[in-house]
Amino acid sequence: EKHSASKKNIVLIGFMGVGKTTVGQMIATKLKREFIDIDQYIEQTYHMSIPQIFEQKGEPYFRKLERKTVIDICQHHYNNIVSLGGGAFQQKEIREFCLENCLVLYLDISWESWKARFELINENRPVLNNRSLYDIQQLFNERKHAYSMHHLKINTDNKSPEEVTASIIEALQ
Ligand code: S3P
């Protein structure tokens, strides 16, 4: 074993808009750990917003940066809370690395609850642009398979970020 369980990074996965960043920040505060949001880190490091990277460089380029960033961050930091973009776990390399080295926490949401929040989360997400609700539901279902590979799952339906955070803290004890 590379490092003890208590030093492992906790990696948050789940579909766009499920609350990975908000909840990640809250868990970090409660557990007195550092918080890193991979998308924010990419934006700061490369001085471009995620939509700009998609537009100017294309999605495959973004996925490469995402892969490099997740693995670098998790290799060089311990005991952190790390929130991943909703598509990151589709990458086998990211998935395998995180499952082996981190505690993978899946924030689950039902399609019905997600749809009810859709209007609130549509901004700045290139993957949602120009997609019908039907197409988004397809994507939502396709991604479930990758998300099913995790260590711990918390359902977020009808829960506030505070309630989700409390459930996570309880589950971690
Ligand atoms: C993506 C989700 C986004 C961001 C990018 C692509 C996806 O992260 O990484 O726009 O493919 O689901 P959030 O899950 O934080 O929105």
From TrEMBL:
ATP binds at G17, V18, G19, K20, T21, T22, R125. Mg(2+) binds at T21. SUPFAM superfamilies: P-loop containing nucleoside triphosphate hydrolases. It is found in: Cytoplasm. GO terms for molecular function: ATP binding; magnesium ion binding; shikimate kinase activity. Substrate binds at D39, R63, G86, R143. Its EC number is 2.7.1.71. GO terms for cellular component: cytosol. Its main location: cytoplasm. Keywords: Amino-acid biosynthesis, Aromatic amino acid biosynthesis, ATP-binding, Cytoplasm, Kinase, Magnesium, Metal-binding, Nucleotide-binding, Transferase. The keyword Cytoplasm applies. The keyword Phosphoprotein does not apply. Pfam families: SKI (PF01202). InterPro entries: P-loop_NTPase (IPR027417), Shikimate/glucono_kinase (IPR031322), Shikimate_kinase/TSH1 (IPR000623), Shikimate_kinase_CS (IPR023000). Binds 1 Mg(2+) ion per subunit. Monomer. Catalyzes the specific phosphorylation of the 3-hydroxyl group of shikimic acid using ATP as a cosubstrate. This is Shikimate kinase. It comes from Heyndrickxia ginsengihumi. The lineage of its organism: Bacteria, Bacillati, Bacillota, Bacilli, Bacillales. The gene is aroK.
